[in-house]
Amino acid sequence: MERKSLIGTHHVSSLTANAKENYRFYTEVLGMRLVKKTVNQDDTSVYHLFYADERGNPGTDLTFFEIPHAGKTYYGNNAITLTSLRVPNDQALNFWQERFEQFQVKFEPITEVNKRKTLKFWDFEGQRLMLISDEHNQGVAGGKAWDKSPVPVEYAIYGLGPVTLTVPKKETTAAVLKEVLGFKLVGEIAPFVEGQANIQVFETGEGGTGAEIYLEERTDLPRERPGRGSVHHVAFRVENQEELEKWANFISGVRLPNSGTVERYYFRSLYFREPNGILFELATDGPGFEGDESFETLGENLALPPYFEDKRKEIEAKLVPLNTKQ
C-alpha cells in the first residue's frame, strides 16, 4: 500500500531534572502554553509536560520528561543537538533579544541560517534552542499562538522548526531519511562550527520551516552523554492511524527494528533508531489533547489516559505536586 509523505515535525521530547522550573521557564519566559500535564507512559513515576501553541496542534509540541536526578549533559555526537522554534517574522527576534536580556537568558546575536533570521539561546539546564523567523516561509503552516500568553501574539512561538541531527557519519543517517522516511535532500548550509563540513538540509511534505531536518557531520566529537537539557527523540507527523499502519508495515519490511504501533491516547506512535543511534518516532496528528480536558483548562490538572485511571492514586502519590493552574 502506498504511504503518504510525512507532513513535518510532530514534536520534540527532551529531559529536565526540575519540572517546576521547567514549567516556569517555558510558560513565563517563552510564553508557550502547557497543554498537557501527564506522566511518562513508560515510567508513570515521572511527569511528561507538553508545551505548544494554543491547543497543541501537531507540529507545535516541545515536551519534557522529568528525571529528577538527571545528571549534566556532556554535549557530543550521535544526538539531536539543536531544536528550533518558529516565530512569525524577523521583528519578533528583536523582541526576543530584549526579553532574553530582561530574564537573563543566555543567547547569541541574531544571525542567518538557510536564508532565515535566527536567534540561538539556552534554557536554565543548557537545552540548545534556536528561534527561527517564518517571515519568508512558504511551507507547512505553523500553529496558532495562545492569546493568554505573556508574550504578544505577533511575536509568539507557534511551532517547531528544523531539528539538527549531529552524527559522526552522515551517509547512514541520510540513507534512512531519504530511503526510509522519504525526505528529500534540498541543499546545504554553512557549518555551525568553522572548519567542519557543510550541513545538509532535508525536507518532507510541503517543506518549509516546519518540515526540515539539518544533518550535521562532526568527526571531532565524542558520543553525547545525555542528561538534563538533552533531547530524547524527535517525532514526525503522520496523517492518521491508517497511514501509521502503512508506515509500520514498510519499516518492518525493510528490516528496521521498531516498536510497532503504540497507543499514547493523545496520538498513536511508532519508534525506531537510525544507525547512528538517534531515536525517531512517527506520530499521528490526532486525536489531540482535548479528549480528557476542555480547551479552557488544558494543562491545569494531571491528565491520565483511561488505561491508567485505575492507578491514579498510586501514580499521584509518587509525583511531587506541580501547580499549573492558570
Describe the fold and architecture:
With 326 residues, the chain is α+β, with helices and mostly antiparallel strands. It has one domain (9-318): 2,3-Dihydroxybiphenyl 1,2-Dioxygenase, domain 1 (Roll), CATH 3.10.180. Helices cover 17% and strands 33% of the residues. It has helices spanning 19-29, 90-102, 170-180, 241-253, 312-318, and strands spanning 9-16, 33-40, 43-52, 61-66, 79-87, 111-113, 116-122, 128-133, 160-167, 184-189, 199-203, 212-217, 231-238, 262-263, 267-273, 279-287. An 8-stranded mixed sheet has the order 2-3-4-1-13-16-15-14. The protein has an 8-stranded mixed sheet with strand order 6-7-8-5-9-12-11-10, with helices on one face. β3 and β4 form a beta hairpin. It is globular, with a radius of gyration of 19 Å. The protein starts with 8 loop residues before the first strand and ends in an 8-residue tail after the last helix.
**Strand fraction band?**
25-35%
How does CATH name the architecture? Roll
Please state how the strands of the largest beta sheet are arranged side by side.
2-3-4-1-13-16-15-14
CATH level 4 superfamily: 2,3-Dihydroxybiphenyl 1,2-Dioxygenase, domain 1
Number of domains: 1
Helical fraction: 10-25%
Order of helices and strands: EHEEEEHEEEEHEEEEHEEEH
Q: What labels would you give this structure?
A:
dioxygenase activity, Extradiol_RC_dioxygenase, 2,3-Dihydroxybiphenyl 1,2-Dioxygenase, domain 1, VOC_core, eight-stranded mixed beta sheet, Glyoxalase, alpha+beta, oxidoreductase, 5 helices
